[in-house]
């Protein structure tokens, strides 16, 4: 057989001429039912910040975020405490929150290294309620989709129906979420249309049949495999066709539910052999899971020619490989009766996106000078009068963190050779020395499509002459603290 052809008659990736080189990107996924608690003081170990291998994308899925009415309203006005902690932790390390979605107790956050921002496009989010006949958002799913270097990724954070006897209903809920969630994109209108789907959350699947004493003995001796054949999700994956398209790493970590808070002991109430006013018995279970699905490649009909396959649009033949690096739980966190689950993945893919916009700061920038912005269109795209260029601190944490911005209105993108120069209002420029970047935000792509090299805004001459820097810095610090 010709080495360039697979057994199915489809050419191997080596025989398909695609632009770009193979690159490996790392995705760090966390799911955690936080039980309405406030965040811990430090989340470094949760994010593997001491690791020599850094993540390119962080995807954080939380369940049971405090959704009491007053707290929920406050979170709509101000950043919730969990989002604030993740942004405060990752922002100084060069990560930016690219999108988030909140549905009452469900929260999904997506962070990216700043250098990837021009290649993350078409951001959209949606949510589905399944609690109390679909009217209450304590259960359901929130999702975010992006295009990452031309590959479509979707992240789905779910909190499904609880209790031991509802395994089949949990699968029904998941399928319902997949059916009703839609995105305003021509190529990926549904969750399953994406090249890669991460599905995670408090899926609430339990361990059938085994008694409490057997469970505890297997867990204490680290013989977790004794429990796998009665894990409801693994059982469902053997008989449900849809679930068979998903993969999950081996459960080599302790069941993540249910613990006494601030302890590594399972629910002490469950060790009692009676039920009473002490509460309900809760057997340990792997309720918190991370799975993934690579979109199946289209099958070639019998009799079709290999040449016809190679002439298909590049999107269909673009290869994408997923390798699970770690799948574990961190038992050191005790703010909830669930332990967080962590999955780290290597994405091997070929980049076929190129930057859309080149933007840079010209000359010396200061509040007393003429802050000149130059940008050029490198690839034609659907520009809008709602596009804008923002001035950010170099360590900005989200798209909304801009210092100031200017609209790119009335400018028609007609070729890749256009060079446009515009001035920002010097009254909005920082008066103290600040490291900054410029970002071009595309309204249609819902993302930053161009980012400048870092540059320095110089201290204002007026500040230097009047020696006002300490006063301004102190005022800025007070504002930041508030």
Describe the structure.
The protein is an alpha+beta fold. Helix content is 17%, strand content 31%. It contains 10 helices and 19 strands. The chain has helices at 69-77, 81-90, 167-180, 212-220, 225-228, 232-239, 306-310, 314-317, 461-466, 469-481, and strands at 22-33, 57-63, 95-103, 106-113, 120-131, 136-148, 151-159, 196-202, 288-294, 320-329, 341-350, 357-362, 372-377, 388-393, 404-407, 419-423, 434-442, 447-451, 455-457. It has a 6-stranded mixed beta sheet with strand order 3-4-2-1-11-10, with helices on one face. A 5-stranded mixed beta sheet has the order 5-6-7-8-9, covered by helices on one side. A hairpin with a 4-residue loop joins strand 5 (120-131) and strand 6. The longest helix is centred in the middle third of the chain and has 14 residues, at 167-180. It starts with 21 loop residues before the first strand and ends with a helix. Residues 1-18, 273-279, 305-316, 412-416 and 471-482 have low confidence and may be disordered.
Note the topology:
Layout: E1 22-33, E2 57-63, H1 69-77, H2 81-90, E3 95-103, E4 106-113, E5 120-131, E6 136-148, E7 151-159, H3 167-180, E8 196-202, H4 212-220, H5 225-228, H6 232-239, E9 288-294, H7 306-310, H8 314-317, E10 320-329, E11 341-350, E12 357-362, E13 372-377, E14 388-393, E15 404-407, E16 419-423, E17 434-442, E18 447-451, E19 455-457, H9 461-466, H10 469-481
Parallel strand pairs: 1-2, 7-8
Antiparallel strand pairs: 1-11, 2-4, 3-4, 5-6, 6-7, 8-9, 10-11, 12-13, 13-16, 14-15, 14-17, 17-18, 17-19
């Amino acid at each position: 057989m010709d080495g360039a052809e697979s057994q199915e008659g489809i050419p191997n990736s080596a025989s398909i001429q695609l632009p770009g080189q193979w690159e490996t990107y790392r995705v760090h996924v966390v799911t955690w039912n936080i039980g309405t608690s406030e965040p811990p003081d430090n989340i470094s170990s949760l994010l593997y910040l001491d690791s020599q291998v850094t993540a390119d994308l962080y995807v954080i899925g939380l369940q049971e975020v405090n959704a009491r009415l007053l707290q929920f309203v406050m979170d709509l006005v101000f950043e919730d405490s969990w989002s604030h902690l993740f942004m405060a932790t990752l922002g100084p390390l060069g990560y930016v929150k690219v999108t988030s979605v909140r549905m009452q107790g469900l929260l999904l956050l997506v962070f990216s290294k700043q250098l990837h921002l021009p290649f993350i496009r078409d951001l959209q989010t949606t949510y589905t309620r399944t609690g109390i006949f679909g009217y209450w958002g304590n259960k359901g799913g929130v999702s975010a989709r992006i295009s990452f270097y031309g590959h479509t990724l979707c992240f789905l954070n779910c909190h499904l129906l609880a209790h031991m006897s509802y395994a089949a209903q949990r699968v029904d809920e998941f399928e319902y979420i997949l059916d009703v969630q839609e995105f305003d994109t021509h190529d990926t209108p549904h969750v399953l249309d994406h090249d890669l789907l991460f599905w995670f959350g408090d899926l609430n699947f339990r361990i059938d049949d085994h008694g409490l004493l057997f469970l505890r003995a297997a867990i204490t001796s680290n013989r977790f495999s004794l429990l796998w054949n009665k894990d409801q999700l693994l059982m469902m994956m053997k008989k449900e066709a849809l679930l068979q398209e998903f993969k999950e790493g081996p459960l080599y970590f302790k069941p993540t539910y249910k613990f006494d808070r601030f302890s590594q002991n399972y629910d002490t109430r469950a060790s009692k052999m009676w039920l009473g006013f002490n509460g309900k018995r809760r057997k340990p279970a792997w309720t918190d899971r991370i799975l993934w699905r690579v979109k199946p490649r289209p099958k070639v009909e019998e009799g079709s020619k290999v040449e016809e396959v190679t002439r298909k649009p590049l999107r269909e033949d673009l290869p994408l490989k997923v390798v699970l690096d770690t799948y574990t739980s961190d038992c050191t966190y005790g703010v909830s009766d669930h332990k967080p689950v962590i999955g780290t993945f290597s994405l091997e893919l070929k980049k076929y996106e190129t930057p859309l916009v080149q933007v840079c700061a010209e000359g010396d920038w200061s509040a007393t000078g003429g802050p000149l912005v130059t940008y050029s269109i490198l690839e034609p795209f659907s520009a809008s009068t709602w596009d804008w260029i923002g001035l950010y601190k170099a360590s900005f944490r989200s798209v909304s963190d801009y210092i100031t911005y200017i609209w790119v209105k009335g400018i028609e993108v007609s070729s890749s050779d256009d060079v446009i120069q515009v001035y920002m209002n010097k009254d909005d420029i920082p008066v103290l020395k600040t490291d900054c970047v410029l970002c071009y935000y595309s309204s249609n792509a819902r993302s930053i499509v161009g980012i400048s090299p870092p540059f320095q805004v110089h201290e204002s001459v007026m500040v230097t002459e009047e020696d006002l820097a300490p006063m301004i810095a102190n005022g800025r610090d007070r504002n930041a603290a508030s």
